[in-house]
Design brief:
- The protein is of the alpha/beta class.
- It has 3 domains: 167 residues, 2-Layer Sandwich (Ribosomal Protein S5, domain 2), CATH 3.30.230.10; 225 residues, Rossmann fold (3-Layer(aba) Sandwich), CATH 3.40.50; 73 residues, no CATH class.
- It is 38% helix and 15% strand.
- It contains 22 helices and 18 strands.
- It has a 5-stranded parallel sheet with strand order 11-14-17-10-18.
- Strand 1 and strand 2 form a beta hairpin.
- Helix 7 packs across helix 20.
- The chain is elongated and about 85 Å long.
- It starts with a strand and ends with a helix.
Length: 506
């Protein structure tokens, strides 16, 4: 009997390497073997494939069925290979007589089978569709994954609900419907509005600067002052995702089996993991590397509330991706890289009880307790935060004051959009993503500004990293105002937005 070869793809980080599913039916005692470095789920596929074929009224060929997943040294996981295995068995056994095996050279198959032959969705379908499109291949995949294929421009995808539908298509009896390219509508509404926050002018100003330059930001203040409320409104003043960014965000969500919501296609992600999250949950990993919260926040916001309550070792793993915009995960047999260009926003109390410096005077923490609490966050991590801003208590009068107009998110977002346009026209990236050399080139200081930052470096013992971060924040302040060079006012405001530097000096 001939050997049938069906194309599919594995999932390996953000890549989808080609896999050839080879099926051979030989003589001998009946057996069903899958080789090619399959994981446990793939080994179990033979039982699902067997039941699906029998329940679809096909025959399971007698003899030795050998399925080879090539290349042999690439680990295979998931149920995505069950449809190509079933089609390969039908081809090799001659149960699809009208199908021509040579016509499968440019068609890829994906799908997990139920015992009745229904096709169930797979994870990573979007990444597979991208790779297949680059190879100019047609893909056949479960109908539940159709939305993921629909957002890939130029992808020729066919959606099926059942194994019998795929067989009917291959035999020429009834063609499968093509997945239509998605008509994405930009919907940016539905996010919390900045106008709902009363008072806190300094924190709002910091939030606008952070949005303009994609800077990291730490809010510090007593409980109930609006730290979380402010952070949750950051996405409402950020520019919408462009096509390339939205596709990257969707691809990462596809890896963990999360569907695509086309109504929120251009809205930047906002992730807020609990402080009990492990290092693997935050940065990704596992024996089969998966993206973590920092990758799910790619091109969006990662909000860490109650920052000192996170395990210190968990927080330390943020240092590399904050600088590089990617996370590298190395295991004994696997190496994977996931994008992690996120905007970090964090919130913390000033002391264990939370009321240090509060106008109510309720704090009874000792200096040793306060020091131990703040030392849960390492100096190198704090040094990587562009701004740390105090969020004081809001008085009852401010909460009840409706006489003064409050800016909405839409008004602030317009200034943020113009500031980012200036950055992209000038340097091709946001200010927070500038390297040290690029910051020296694009953050030109006036003579008065040089004096201000030199004095601050000496007085607060600032590091070289802090120096460049201050420059970049000042550059964002100037971009909001439309200024060409950085004045002493811009630098002074950037310095004022780093309250922990001043606390360390005192």
């Amino acid at each position: 009997m001939p050997i049938a070869t069906i194309l599919s793809r594995a999932q390996f980080g953000m890549h989808a390497p080609q896999v050839c599913v080879e099926v051979d039916i030989g003589s001998g005692l009946p057996s069903f073997t899958i080789v090619g470095l399959p994981e446990a789920v793939v080994k179990e596929s033979k039982d699902r494939v067997r039941a699906a074929l029998l329940n679809c009224h096909f025959e399971l060929p007698p003899g030795r069925i050998t399925v080879n997943l090539a290349p042999a040294d690439l680990p295979k996981e998931g149920g995505r290979f069950e449809l190509p295995i079933a089609i390969g068995i039908l081809l090799a056994s001659g149960q699809l007589p009208t199908a021509q095996p040579q016509s499968f050279a440019d068609t890829e198959f994906y799908g997990e089978l139920s015992l009745a032959g229904e096709l169930r969705p797979i994870s990573g379908a979007l990444i597979a569709a991208l790779a297949a499109t680059r190879a100019n291949h047609t893909i056949i995949l479960p109908q539940a994954n159709g939305d993921e294929a629909s957002v890939v421009s130029g992808c020729h995808a066919l959606a099926a609900r059942h194994l019998l539908e795929v067989c009917a298509h291959l035999s020429g009896a009834q063609a499968l419907p093509a997945v239509q390219t998605a008509n994405v509508v930009i919907e940016l509404g539905g996010t919390p509005d900045l106008a709902e926050v009363r008072g806190q002018p300094l924190a709002k100003r910091a939030l606008e600067i952070a949005a303009a330059g994609e800077h990291s930001l730490l809010f510090m203040g007593p409980p109930g002052t609006g730290k979380s409320m402010l952070a949750q409104r950051l996405p409402s003043i950020l520019p919408a995702l462009n096509d390339a960014e939205a596709l990257q965000v969707a691809a990462i969500r596809s890896l963990i089996g999360q569907g695509i919501d086309l109504r929120r296609w251009r809205i930047r992600p906002f992730r807020s993991p609990h402080h009990t999250a492990s290092g693997v949950a935050l940065v990704g990993g596992g024996s089969q590397p998966r993206p973590g919260e920092i990758s799910l926040a790619h091109h969006g916001v990662l909000f860490l509330d109650e920052l000192p309550e996170f395990d210190r070792r968990v927080l330390e793993v943020l240092r590399e991706p904050l600088e590089s915009g990617a996370i590298h995960i190395a295991r004994a047999t696997r190496h994977a890289e996931f994008p992690a260009s996120f905007q970090l926003v964090a919130a913390m109390n000033p002391c264990p009880c939370g009321y240090l410096g509060d106008s109510l005077g309720k704090c009874r923490c000792t200096s040793e307790q306060i020091q131990r609490y703040r030392m849960r966050i390492s100096g190198p991590l704090l040094d990587r935060l562009d701004m740390h801003v105090e969020v004081p208590r809001v008085s009852a009068e401010q909460l009840q004051d409706n006489s003064h107009p409050v800016e909405s998110s839409e008004q602030v977002a317009q200034r943020v959009f113009r500031a980012r346009e200036r950055q992209w026209q000038r340097q091709g990236r946001c200010n927070a993503r500038l390297s040290a050399a690029q910051a020296d080139r694009w953050c030109v200081l006036e003579s008065s500004a040089r004096v201000v930052i030199s004095r601050a470096m000496q007085k607060f013992s600032l590091s070289a990293r802090a120096y460049h971060r201050i420059l970049k924040v000042a550059r964002s302040i100037a971009d909001i105002q439309g200024a060409k060079d950085l004045s002493a006012v811009h630098v002074s405001e950037a310095l004022a937005l780093r309250c922990l530097d001043r606390a360390g000096a005192s």
